[in-house]
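Severity: low
Component: inverse-folding endpoint
Summary: output formatting inconsistent between runs
Steps to reproduce: submit the following structure tokens with default settings.
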């Protein structure tokens, strides 16, 4: 039997790197779209770079996306690329709309024109729920996004549904709640905290400066969530799913747990707050109901909150030690 072929936008990102590893282990031929940068940023994929084929392309450039679909001739397309940092979406709202909203239409158009029989996954987000209308949030909960990023993702979500309904494409959205890992970007709160805790442990920093400590998130492990993306594309019918853990914790809880990993009970001694990290509009409370994914996809998260925090703190300590050797 011929190996399946997958095309991933955002392969150099956190999720793209875990998804590529997951698909390689299933003997897929994996293609990834990478954009031009002045120096390559392949840290997350270096360990398997020789096993995947990288195709130059950009979410802003229709021709490059269409050409990538021609080259890859994929059975499955995973659209993970985006301007994914919520805070930046206020300082670069138009760019966020171009990448995160219209970029989705461009990838869908490339698929519609070149390979309409392929299956399409859109990386939708719990940020679409924003000011939540019910708790926990499920696939039927209405949206009230609170940032230009959330608004752009809501567009990406609906254009995916629209292409499914207009052209009968197999196009699905995974509404994923926050998921983290040692590969998370340093600007996101979890990694900022675990990196800060690791630096404090090694005597390289004295404190961490954060914004809103009261916001609550449903945090899972990225390595668990990429399996759910794949499962959505293995179903007989295209549909949308919430992927979450069903548990939430405040930023303060995360900080407390991270300091406990290094044996420090008095986390408040090390944490400062600054208005710099307060957002113009906040998403205060997210918690996902993943019962549909559990029932239909037979998916459930495997990594607990405590193990996730421990994994991230320990990985950051190791990384800092390695870098200082
Ligand atoms: P990430 O680490 O920030 O990765 C984003 C990827 O998009 C990177 O590979 C980046 O490439 C690429 N990209 C950005 N702009 C691009 C452009 N103009 N053209 C081509 N590629 C571009 O994000 P992630 O955490 O893996 O998230 C993956 C997707 O899931 C994103 O769409 C995100 O919005 C969404 N999502 C994430 C979460 C979460 O908690 N992680 C939850 C829900 C939804 P460079 O390496 O060149 O920057
Ligand atoms: O880690 P964050 O920046 O993630 P956020 O905004 O929840 O977005 C992430 O999850 C979404 C899914 O819901 C994705 F769609 C999106 O792409 C991204 O992956 O912030 C989490 C919370 C916020 O309430 C923020 O205000 O942490 C709070 N926070 C407090 N101090 C901070 C900080 N966030 C950051 N980044 N930095 C701080 O110093």
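Observed output (run 2 of 3):
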């Amino acid at each position: 039997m011929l190996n399946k072929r997958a095309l991933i936008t955002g392969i150099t990102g956190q999720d793209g790197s875990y998804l590529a590893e997951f698909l390689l282990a299933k003997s897929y031929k994996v293609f990834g779209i990478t954009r031009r940068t002045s120096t390559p940023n392949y840290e997350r994929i270096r360990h398997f770079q020789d096993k995947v084929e990288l195709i130059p392309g950009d979410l802003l450039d229709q021709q490059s996306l269409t050409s990538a679909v021609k080259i890859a001739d994929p059975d499955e397309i995973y659209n993970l690329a985006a301007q994914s940092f919520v805070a930046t979406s206020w300082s670069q709202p138009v760019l966020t709309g171009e990448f995160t909203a219209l970029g989705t239409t461009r990838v869908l158009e490339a698929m519609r024109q070149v390979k309409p029989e392929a299956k399409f996954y859109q990386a939708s987000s719990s940020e679409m729920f924003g000011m939540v209308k019910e708790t926990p949030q499920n696939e039927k909960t209405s949206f009230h996004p609170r940032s230009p990023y959330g608004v752009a993702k809501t567009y990406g979500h609906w254009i995916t549904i629209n292409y499914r309904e207009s052209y009968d494409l197999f196009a699905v959205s995974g509404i994923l709640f926050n998921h983290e890992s040692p590969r998370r970007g340093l600007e996101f709160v979890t990694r900022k905290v675990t990196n800060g805790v690791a630096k404090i442990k090694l005597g390289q920093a004295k404190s961490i400066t954060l914004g809103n400590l009261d916001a609550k998130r449903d945090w899972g492990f990225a390595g668990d969530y990429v399996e759910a993306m794949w499962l959505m594309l293995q179903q007989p019918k295209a549909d949308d799913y919430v992927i979450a853990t069903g548990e939430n914790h405040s930023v303060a809880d995360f900080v407390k747990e991270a300091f406990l990993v290094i044996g420090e009970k008095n986390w408040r001694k090390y944490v400062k707050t600054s208005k710099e990290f307060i957002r113009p509009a906040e998403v205060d409370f997210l918690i996902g109901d993943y019962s549909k994914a559990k029932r239909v996809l037979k998916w459930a998260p495997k990594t607990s909150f405590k193990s996730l925090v421990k994994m991230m703190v320990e990985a950051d300590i190791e990384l800092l030690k390695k870098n200082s050797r």
